[in-house]
Design a protein that fits this description.
The chain contains one helix and no strands. It is mainly α.
């Protein structure tokens, strides 16, 4: 009998790295967007 696993750590490792890198890149752009919009709102109220 052959052993079949739905979760192979060596096959999913690349996909996990791509997901983490994508999340970090989007997080950086999100922080830049939030910081730039805060600056515009503060200068607009004065």
């Amino acid at each position: 009998m052959e052993f079949y696993s739905y979760l192979n750590i060596f096959e999913t490792k690349g996909l996990e790295y791509l997901i983490v890198i994508g999340f970090l890149v989007l997080f950086v752009f999100f922080i830049r967007y939030i910081s730039s919009s805060d600056g515009k709102l503060k200068s607009g109220k004065k």
